[in-house]
From TrEMBL:
Residues 1-23 form the signal peptide. NCBIfam families: lp (TIGR02722). GO terms for biological process: peptidoglycan biosynthetic process. GO terms for molecular function: enzyme regulator activity. Keywords: Signal. Pfam families: LpoB (PF13036). GO terms for cellular component: periplasmic side of cell outer membrane. Coiled coil: none annotated. This is Penicillin-binding protein activator LpoB. Gene3D superfamilies: ABC-type transport auxiliary lipoprotein component.
């Protein structure tokens, strides 16, 4: 009887040890993920006032001004083709200026009054696709895009972002100016130009 009790106790201990080992393995393979910070979604169009550095509100204001100005001129009659050239960042900040041009391009495309062709930075991807279709031998003859049939741009957009920063012991003032030009590619003339000025002041 005593031996039976000992065997039973040993079995219980073995089962308990197995359960602990299994639990440890599960904890190793399936770690519990905890979020220490609460995330809240906000309005993407709300005014951003975290710092006086270039932010989302500035980007939206510039895109709205440039798009509105371009569409009001009537220069896009007949849905001409446009390409985007360089956007120079002449500020002391790191600013992804392509975001500004992307917002302008999106609004203009949605207006239905202009067609965009590949920019210089996007051209290599188009060339690679044409070569893949025409040289790989994977596609039916007659269904591939023909080389030499791309539509050239009539106009070219060039942008520039500059800033002037002034600060004292108590105040920091930042002045931004974004300039956008539309060139006639063939004639090299500036057909349209506009700028957007933004001033941001903060207490230190």
């Amino acid at each position: 009887m005593k031996q039976h009790t000992i065997q039973r106790s040993a079995l219980v201990l073995a089962l308990a040890a197995s359960s602990l080992a299994l639990s440890a393995c599960q904890n190793l393979s399936s770690p519990v993920v905890r979020f220490d910070r609460q995330v809240n979604y906000g309005d993407a169009k709300a005014v951003e006032l975290v710092t006086n550095e270039f932010g989302s509100t500035d980007l939206q204001m510039i895109a709205e001004k440039m798009t509105g100005g371009l569409l009001e001129t009537g220069i896009f009659q007949g849905r001409p083709t446009v390409t985007i050239s360089t956007v120079k960042n002449k500020t002391s900040e790191y600013i992804d200026t392509t975001n500004v041009m992307s917002s302008i391009q999106t609004a203009l495309v949605k207006s239905g009054k202009v067609r965009f062709v590949r920019s210089i930075n996007e051209m290599q991807q188009g060339v690679d696709e044409l070569q893949r279709q025409n040289q790989s031998g994977l596609y039916k003859q007659g269904t591939t895009a023909k080389v030499g049939q791309m539509t050239a741009a009539k106009y070219q957009m060039e942008g520039e972002l500059t800033s002037i920063v002034k600060q004292s012991a108590a105040t920091k003032d930042v002045y931004y100016k974004f300039t956008l030009k539309l060139f006639d590619v063939q004639e090299g003339t500036i057909e349209w130009q506009d700028e957007k000025e933004i001033r941001k002041t903060s207490k230190r």
